[in-house]
Amino acid sequence: MWTCPFCPEPPGWRVDLPALWERFAWLRPLRDTPQDAKYHAEGDVWTHLGMVLKVLSTLPAFRALNEADRNIVFAATVLHDISKPECTVIEEDGRIRSPNHAVRGVYKARRILAEDPAFGRNGTPFHSREAILSLVRWHGLPVQFPDKPDPVRAVLRPSFTTRYDLLTILADADHRGRKVSEPTDSAGKIALFPDYCREQRVWDGPYPFANDHSRFMYFRTENAHPTLHLFDDTKCEVTMMAGLPGGGKSTWIAANARGRGVVSLDDIRDELGVTPTDDQAPVITLAYERAREFLRRREDFIWNATSITRILRDKLIAIAAGYGARIKIVYVQPSIPEVRRRNTGRAKVVPESAWNRMFDRLDVPTVTEAHAVEYVLT
Counting C-beta atoms within 10 Å of the first and last residue's C-beta, which end of the chain has fewer, N or C? Predict the structure, then answer.
């Protein structure tokens, strides 16, 4: 079982803030990051984090968790504001804001969990890591959901990656671990969140769509209703590989292609004589055209590219969906140190600086994007 360093344990439930400060240098910028006095009269982000962690250790709901879940919630709480230093802005009127700190926090926290040796020789295991990151990403949801344009959709999408019982514990500690200069309704919203999630059938897990196609179309269709039962009329299947260079995508294809055609961006670069540092437009144009040829013939095929961000994946998914194709994403990832090692041993090594940029943009795919996702964690 994976454990988070310094997670409080019974019977004392002690949070050792000096040890956290001493061990994790990436926490120190929090002390120099101011916060808006209206919502954080306690001062800087480090002061807030210390208050939140101490409150967390006292919550009956936290103490009642099993050891594995406590470690996940504690790690997510430590990391929930990790990107506030780079996201914080002071407006002309003196107000302080940290826009997008939860989104950017996922990328920063992933690197910490993957590379700080305190979290394991090979980093935090994949499923524990992604559970922590989902809590970082959505830690504001229990307070924000009533004000979303579509509150139902706001709680359905995260339900596929996030344990809402754990999220509520984090949000409760986050709310209690602060001082406010003006009263807020945050406590009431957090108290409402579990009942609202139960009403939407997501408190105990992902929303139970009628089938994969209904789920896929709901998340691609504005104003769609989740209870619709759509007939799966897909005509072929596109298998989209996703993963960092050196992860093993080509190895998976060699073992699983079963005669299917492959559209490979690396192969097209070789064919056109284009290097990775050249203009990639001709490569991408030809790749999409070859994909359309398969789709017109309603033939299953494999798309072999890194596809590391949701935006990159979405363009092909949109094209494939337009042709009535079923989309399966195969995400391949050994441990991050192993991926780095494999990349350096490849015939076509991706420069370390480029690899790092890709890692810092990585969006692990979820079933809200496709009909199915397979995780190959070698």
Answer: N
